[in-house]
């Protein structure tokens, strides 16, 4: 089963280590950031399924981090649970008004936190705003992103088609196929983080069709980085024999033995709106 990805934004080393050890043992993949700026960058690059966010951080407070995540298209729908020593009702209301999904006060019971994490993940799955395997926006969230970019200028829309996925899943199974989708979404978000802007978004239309909406001032570099990441990563999902041979051998009842190409991706610019004189695209944060 594909591991759920949790991002922990917490500056207290002891708390962070305890949570990392506990949730790793529960089968989660954990990313950690010791301050707000690193947390925002990691959220954009890793697309976690859920974020555990401390309010009291050394650079910017958790409320500002939450506000930034909720106003950035790529991270807008990621569930957020606040961890804080504050127990005032006003602070809780403020966090929830910013779009946090839950709020737990330190010191907390770790089993209660585990249940709250599971509950937030289940709600996110029911609402179907993001795909649980990739963390990418789907359905109504894509329409919202399209509408937001329609009002801007100086943007490109890239269409990415994942070829060979159905054959890979039939040959290697659903677990391996889910791992491919997770890798694929990480590659998209990492490349946007490095070569795009904070306003960019990756979206999942289906298992094999994706879009990138970007204000990047250097789209060729973005495309080149994505192609390189996929060409490097796809072969690692095959066994040695298939990888060296360069194709799968499958049996068909009607045609007999068939050679099936390995995973690949087609990337094309399908829409472009020219920038106006007032547009000043921001470079992606490191």
What's the rounded overall pLDDT mean? 87
What is the CATH homologous superfamily assignment of the largest domain?
Answer: Reverse transcriptase/Diguanylate cyclase domain
Compute the gyration radius: what is it? 20 Å
Instruction: Quickly name the level 1 CATH class of the largest domain.
Output: Alpha Beta
Strand order of the largest sheet: 2-1-3-4-5
Count the beta strands. 11
Count of separate structural domains = 2
DSSP helix fraction: 40-55%
What proportion strand? 15-25%
Shape: globular
Structural overview:
Pfam families: Response_reg. This is Response regulatory domain-containing protein. The modification 4-aspartylphosphate is found at residue 54. Keywords: DNA-binding, Phosphoprotein, Transcription, Transcription regulation. GO terms for molecular function: phosphorelay response regulator activity; transcription cis-regulatory region binding. The protein is of the alpha/beta class and 286 residues long. It has 2 domains: 5-127, Response regulator (Rossmann fold), CATH 3.40.50.2300; 140-273, 2-Layer Sandwich (Alpha-Beta Plaits), CATH 3.30.70. Helix content is 43%, strand content 23%. It is built from 10 helices and 11 strands. The protein has helices spanning 13-25, 36-46, 62-70, 89-97, 110-127, 140-150, 165-172, 174-195, 219-233, 240-245; strands spanning 5-9, 29-33, 50-54, 80-84, 102-105, 155-163, 201-206, 209-214, 247-252, 256-261, 264-273. The chain has a 5-stranded parallel sheet with strand order 2-1-3-4-5, sandwiched between helices. A 4-stranded antiparallel sheet has the order 7-8-6-11, sandwiched between helices. Helix 2 (36-46) packs across helix 8, helix 7 (165-172) crosses helix 8 (174-195) and helix 8 (174-195) packs antiparallel against helix 9 (219-233). The longest helix is centred in the middle third of the chain and has 22 residues, at 174-195. The radius of gyration is 20 Å and the shape is globular. It starts with a strand and ends in a 13-residue tail after the last strand. Residues 278-286 have low confidence and may be disordered.
């Amino acid at each position: 089963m594909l591991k759920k990805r949790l991002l922990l934004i917490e500056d207290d080393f002891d708390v962070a280590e305890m949570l990392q050890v506990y949730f790793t043992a529960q089968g989660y993949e954990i990313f950690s950031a010791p301050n707000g700026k690193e947390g925002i960058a990691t959220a954009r690059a890793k697309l976690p399924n859920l974020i555990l966010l401390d309010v009291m951080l050394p650079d910017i407070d958790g409320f500002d981090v939450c506000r930034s995540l909720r106003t950035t298209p790529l991270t807008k729908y990621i569930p957020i649970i606040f961890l804080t020593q504050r127990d005032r009702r006003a602070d809780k209301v403020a966090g929830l008004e910013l779009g946090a999904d839950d709020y737990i006060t330190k010191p907390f019971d770790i089993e209660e936190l585990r249940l709250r994490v599971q509950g937030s993940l289940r709600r996110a799955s029911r609402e179907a705003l993001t795909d649980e395997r990739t963390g990418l926006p789907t359905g109504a969230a894509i329409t919202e992103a399209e509408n937001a970019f329609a009002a801007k200028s100086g943007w490109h829309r890239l269409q990415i088609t994942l070829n060979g996925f159905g054959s890979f899943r039939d040959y290697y199974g659903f677990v391996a196929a889910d791992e491919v989708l997770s890798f694929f979404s990480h590659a998209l978000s990492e490349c946007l983080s490095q070569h795009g802007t904070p306003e960019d978004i990756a979206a999942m239309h289906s298992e094999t069709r994706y879009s990138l909406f970007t204000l990047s001032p250097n789209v060729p570099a973005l495309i080149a980085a994505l192609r390189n990441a996929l060409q490097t990563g796809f072969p690692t999902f095959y066994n040695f024999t298939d990888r060296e041979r360069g194709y799968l051998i499958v049996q068909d009842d009607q045609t007999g033995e068939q050679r099936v190409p390995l995973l690949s991706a087609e990337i094309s610019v399908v829409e472009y709106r020219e920038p106006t004189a007032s547009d000043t695209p921001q470079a992606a944060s490191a």
